[in-house]
Batch of 3 targets.
Target 1
Amino acid sequence: MRLANRPDGFGPVTRLLHWGMAAGILGMLAFGLTLVRMRMSLATVWLFGLHKSIGITLLALALLRLLWHRVSPPPGPLGGVPAAQLALARWTHRALYLLMLAVPLSGWAGSAATGIDVVVFNTLTLPPIVPPSEAGAKALLTLHHWLTWALMGLLALHVAGALKRSVLARDGTLSRMVLGRR
Amino acid sequence: MRLIAALTILICGLGTLPAAATSATARHYALQTEASLVGYETDFGPDKITGTMPVTQADLTLDFHTLANCHVAVTLDASKATASFPFAAQALRGPLVLDAADHPQITFVSTAIHPTDTGAIIDGDLTIRGVTQPFTLVATLYRQHGTATDDLTHLEIHLTGIVHRSAFGATGWAEMVGDDVRLNIVARVAQTGA
């Protein structure tokens, strides 16, 4: 099986990373929104550790995905799309990648600023990336909150664009990411 | 466990000090650090977080005849505060609560002591995070286990009080952790000098 991307289609590695991260990010968004509304107790405090662990995993996958794109560049967009839409899609993708890095990094930094370790799946304790600071903790956790909302907005735009291309234009953009071909 | 052990000793019938056993002379006492415990408890949702803080320095002068001569000064090491689970200990010592990196000491200095039937009410100044607020401890005095009825050289002092942490700027995790921190201190002291 050819793992790499082709000029006209996405390979299985790219598709696996795309859909795996999509599931992980959507799950984390729901998890995070639930977590901030949940009444914490000794029975539920471990959920914060799980949230951090999944977040760091998604950060690692985002870095892996960027690395993979250097190794195996993804195919360009399909033709027949207005230039303005192409530009919007290109900037949405760039912003999504930026936020896939910035959201977990801001969470990691916010946790470090509170003086609380990020321990990945109770195994690996990550080093603090900022020093403990009350002002830093409040600023970084607020930043994490708003970056998450920005990510949700961009994901909605990304999904809307994909559905428009798939349902209205029927140009094969979505099937290329699902099946690897048009 | 040490707190439980200390309370067990109390329950086992040591009793409070008899009024007749008091002395007119002010006595200086040193804290028996290893046998003493500064414990705290606070609410965490429906549960409790408990922990301890080590005492780094204690200066106690007790005059059982004239309470106005009594003086208590205690320093705790905030940077070594413990809690019942690791995240809580880190959160406690972190910048949103005790800010132990910038304020490693918690101090209490008495300003007035008022007698009660079983001990005393100790008014003083409590400093946390560099913020000083008036604070009151309720003290009950006991003889230590194995000492004679009139032996005041070794005492056990049980102190309780409630710290409203937000008054000291320790406002972190307020949506999860209660504002009231209940102190439960067992201080064992030994007389020093003549």
Target 2
Amino acid sequence: MIAMPKAKVDAERCRQCMLCVEFCPRGVLVVSDQTNSRGFYPVVMRDEEKCTGCGICALVCPSVCIEVYR
Amino acid sequence: MNEERRRVFISGNEATAEGGIAGGCRHFFGYPITPQNKIPEYMAEHLPPIGGVYLQAESEVAAINMVYGASSAGARVMTTSSSPGIALMQEGLSYMLGSELPAVIVNMVRGGPGLGNVAVAQSDYWLSTRGAGHGDGRCITLTPYSVQELHNFTAGAFEIADRYQNIVMVLGDAILATMMEPCELIPRREMEPPGRPYAVGPHEAGERERNIVNSLWVDFDAMEAVNIRNEERYARAAAEITDWEEFGSDDPQVLLCAYGISARLCEGAVMRAEEAGVRLRLLRPKTVFPFPTVPIREWSERVDAMLVVELSMGQFVEDVRLAVEGRCPVDLLSRAGGNMPTVSEVLAKVREVAAKAGVAV
Amino acid sequence: MQAAHGRGPAVATGIKRVHPDSVVFTYQGDGDLASIGMAEIVHAASRGENFTVIFINNAVFGMTQGQMAPTTLIGQKTTTSPRGRTAAEAGWPIRICELLDTLEGPAYIAREALTTPPRIRSAKKSIRRAFEAQLAGEGFGIVELLSTCPTWWGMDPLEAIRHIDDTMVEHYPLRVFRDRPAAHDRPAGQQEEAGSDA
């Protein structure tokens, strides 16, 4: 079985800058309705099925808090 | 080991430079300033052929920061300058004290404040012993009084710097820098890594923890710990390396205190003491930080008065008075701007001081 | 190894001269490199020191809370140019890459922008190339990265990116200014080639 590619956001380090949401070509990332311990609403994966693992979210993330597995 | 020592006739500047090489220095960063230009010139001539690095920096500020980098990388490194240049280096010196790094700095003091002149002065006493730059940190300060001592002290300064992980300042002056004397040269030490476990540099993965050289301590206690560590090393240095020399009457009425070139002058006064009709002794510190507080205090209980001779308006004299703590009168003979008192003027002042103290002259 | 503000290139020179085989780089902002450290960067570049400089230009002093930098654009408001920078009061913003490109020493000079994914990929390439130049002993490399400061620009992160792409790049064109071994490694008498456009 081939593992599905997916992007994983470290919610604690996310500062909700929204660049990954803006640049994601598949629109699979959204803002959570729960804050992290620093008071930000971190980005979470909404639709893992549609994630292609292209890595653009990780590329643009200034907080270096997204890892992409493919 | 009995080494053959070569005796040569050289200037204080050359003796200092060769002293650095003898002490294991193979990295020199500097910027030209009179009256010490012969030192960088000597290093430019002699370091590259033996595998060393000479680099003329774009400023004293850059030079001291190159020293900071080279020291953090584990090298025995030195720079030399004169008063206005040393003032510019205060930033880097302070960072090195904060990062607890060794280095050797030579200051061939000239007249000031401001651009001043290029003549002899001892007016950087406070600059050398009271700091470097901002913050709680001080430079171990050596005060040679001859070409030979410039050579020996500079060579020995690297051991002291490494032992205490601290800057060592060699305090010369425009006369010592430029005068020529016979000097017995210490054989050049091989360049060897001084074994600094805290230095940055190449290492195999897993061989050791990665080293970080840093003087930023945001945490209050971490900052205070650095300040306390520094105080502890100064206390250790005071116990271990405080050095001075005495010369003259064993039962003095007046004690002369002077360092560096002034001590040279005072030696002449002691030799002619009978002209003043006063029993004279000279105490000359070879280190002024740490300061020979103990012998000066001891003499203060046995002499009628002390006379400090220095080529500044009264800097060194403050440390003498701190050691004496009012036990005897401490007078000052000072000249500045490139002027020096003559031996006769010193003796005249000795008579005056003795008379004031009630010594039958 | 922490250097004093602006002195990174001097400290790096000291380290590299002791350990020529170690990879050495500095990470400097625009206040650090283009203001207080201007002498150190120019002379390290001129000497062709074999290390790499990562230069973050966000046109503002961020760490000290938003003062004008030497790279602040004309008209840009900062806490110390509250009515916007004017050339009459504060002079013009300094273009570091163009300035260093007048020197023989550097092997690699590029300006990139950390905005869109293609531009970030290009920046990665330049950084890689600058380090490769160091590893090959070609000499000094600098990569200027136009970067945002949403906090002190008073913009949200996306607006800030667009500000770079729409406005900042007009004053700071993205370009590889230099990509060749340092001049002192080349045969004497040979003319320099013009830098190639990215």
Target 3
Amino acid sequence: MLKRLPLLVILSLLTVCSFAAYSEKIVVIVNNQNKADSLSSDLIGDIYLGRTSRFPSGEPVKPLDLPKGMAITHDFYAKVVKKTPAQLRAHWSRLVFTGKGRPPKRLSDESAVKSMVSERSDSIGYMYEKTADDAVKIIFDAH
Amino acid sequence: MVHLRMLTKLMCFCGAGLLTFTCNSFAIANLPVEASFFGTVGLAKSSSDEILFRSRVALPTGAGENWSFENDSKIGTQLSYAPSDTFSATIQALAELNSDDTYSPSIEWAYLTYRPRENLKFRLGRTVFPTFTASDYSNVDFAFLPVRMPHDVYSLVPFPGLDGIDVIFNTDAGKTYLTIQALAGQRDFNIYNNGIERTAYELKDSYGLRFSWRSGEWSGGAGYLQGTMRVDAPDVLALADALSSVAGTYPEFGVLADEISNVGKLIIRSVDVHYTGYRFSFSAEYVQRRWNINMNVSDTDAYYILGGYNFGKWTPYAFYSDSQNKSELPLSGYPAAGPLAPLTATLTSLFGPIATDGSTRCIGLRYDILENLAIKTQFERIEPGGSLYLQKNGQPVPQHINLYSVALSFVY
């Protein structure tokens, strides 16, 4: 039994980690009045890269971002937008220095994003699932 | 002596950068503006001192067997003032080596934007038209994979930008996004040519149209630009007169004289396609330039194929580019001895280096040190062609040169 102890410890840690990862799931949120019930990751990526400025309904969309360097920001861009930090910066350089676009507005934290999305119908934001509540509508979750 | 000259240039370069940075800091302290910066410190050297490689036709010097700081080094700054979503003003200054051998900053962009709808934008002032995919951000080296965009293609647009008005319209068809950009404008600029050195050019009555699309990871476009170009080149006109004066004894020179003019129509057509995945990226562009001055020596067809694969911070890449001269009148076979020999020599020294084919094979590696700072190094095997290369003392152009480049690029 003692010989199997390290194995049991590793398995337990893996289980705990997987639960932790599950609870850290990233979701994309919009205002409760938004007509969309779900959006594809491609469309969310296009919105966050400034390629489109409208929801599928034709309503305008203004994406909200979180500070650089936060784990959630890195994970959102890697998993949903599919860009490394340098690729993302190169992308926005192409738009900013040619007057074709500006990066999404950055808010200080997830609570600020939730607050603005709950107030403004044209907003879209992302946060950990545990932060989202009834004040906003979840339209995408990153597995 | 070379080091002293380089040190002086480095100081001028840093001074120009500091000046623009100071201006920005002052502006930020007093106005609600956004400031952005970009720059590159680059070194390049080639295997030959017989010709010098230049990254731009405005450069008065280039890379030979000694490391050249001038080819790729630059610093730029942009200020944007956006009081509302409808109106904004933008100015962008760039300090890099000019055709007059100074680093004085120049205004690359300066325009007012009126955006009546979220998908429609009018801009009045100085802008850079995206004749090719990366034309309008070709100074922001951080924004693309190689040290510089393939020169066989990107050197074909000789002017930096245009003063005029442009309109940008965006729409979508399902998951495909479309952009149409139209422009009308003009611009005076300088080029540093073989034999006739610094030359003033005037582009008038020009207009351009670019259509581009994006669907998922694929994108592409097509562009058209035309204008009337006037070249202030007394040496060329003097040659035309001299050729005319001997037309009676040597009719071939008369034919050439009739085709030499300092005013002509410039037309540039381009088509491109790109794939931008998380790891793999690919670009290809094909370009035609028609420029009916000086026996059409500047008529060129060119293309490149560029690919890269991202391993996190490391991105190895490679490209192949090719340019074919399309002038129809011969530049050889004229009298090499006797009284007409000097005319033949002048003719070939002025136009010979331009009317040549070129190609480049390149391999390189980009390392993203930070999310806004990258170092790139590349090796190019070049068959020199076109007007990008400066001949030294009329020495014969070598068939091939090797070019080594390293550049540190940033945006802020």
